[in-house]
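Fill in residues.
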């Protein structure tokens, strides 16, 4: 277990704020580093190399020690986040935790496939829509699904506008076997050193209502529209 994991932060227990596990108690293990640079990224402190000095190289044992401390050694879901956690060596951490009864969920944009995806309790694939200014590699996204080897996998798409909505429809058509969750995009957040800046909740609410109306009008009954609960409760505050 010599591979070190770049850790941006470990915090919780709190609740998962979005997607298929919304409301579920969890400890977050947020890794540092990402192969994407989405223009509306809300986790720049875990993405941009400018913040690399704040990331800590930790062994799987050290990470698990912190998870145990935070959870009171009472197993729960561990959420692997980032950045893109798929670029980190997380297989040993997952094996350690699962041996003690912890579950693991991970969110990734689907650009890097690892064989340890098959050990996850939930793989959340969040390919990025046009508003992110990133491009989707459809073959690699499929490779991530294949790497899960039947472990539960779902899709989660951030939607800001009509182009993003059309993209979400396209993703769903390409992967009809996966449940899909839609969430209204958060307005471009402030820099990490201004995390307490006010959130435009009215704007997010307007986008949420528009998205609900759009899904219902199209009779897209398979889609599940959910808010970012953590944004509603705590805004951009880190560590909750």
């Amino acid at each position: 277990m010599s591979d070190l994991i770049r850790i941006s932060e470990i915090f919780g227990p709190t609740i998962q704020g979005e997607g298929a596990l919304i409301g579920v108690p969890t400890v977050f293990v947020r890794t540092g580093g990402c192969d994407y640079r989405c223009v509306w990224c809300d986790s720049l402190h875990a993405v941009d190399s400018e913040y690399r000095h704040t990331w800590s190289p930790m062994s799987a044992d050290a990470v698990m020690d912190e998870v145990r401390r935070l959870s009171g050694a009472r197993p729960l879901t561990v959420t692997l986040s980032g950045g893109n956690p798929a670029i980190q060596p997380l297989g040993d951490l997952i094996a350690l935790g699962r041996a003690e009864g912890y579950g693991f969920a991970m969110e990734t944009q689907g650009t890097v496939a690892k064989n340890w995806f098959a050990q996850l309790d939930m793989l959340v694939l969040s390919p990025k829509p046009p508003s992110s200014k990133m491009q989707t590699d459809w073959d690699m996204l499929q490779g991530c699904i294949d790497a899960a080897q039947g472990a539960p996998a779902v899709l989660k798409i951030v939607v800001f506008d009509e182009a993003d909505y059309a993209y979400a429809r396209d993703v769903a058509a390409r992967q009809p076997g996966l449940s899909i969750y839609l969430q209204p995009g958060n307005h471009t957040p402030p820099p990490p050193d201004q995390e307490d800046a006010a959130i435009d909740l009215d704007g997010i609410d307007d986008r949420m209502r528009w998205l609900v109306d759009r899904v219902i009008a199209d009779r897209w009954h398979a889609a599940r529209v959910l808010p970012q609960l953590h944004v509603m409760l705590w805004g951009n505050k880190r560590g909750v």
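Strands lie at 5-15, 25-31, 56-58, 77-81, 103-108, 122-125, 153-159, 180-184, 223-225.
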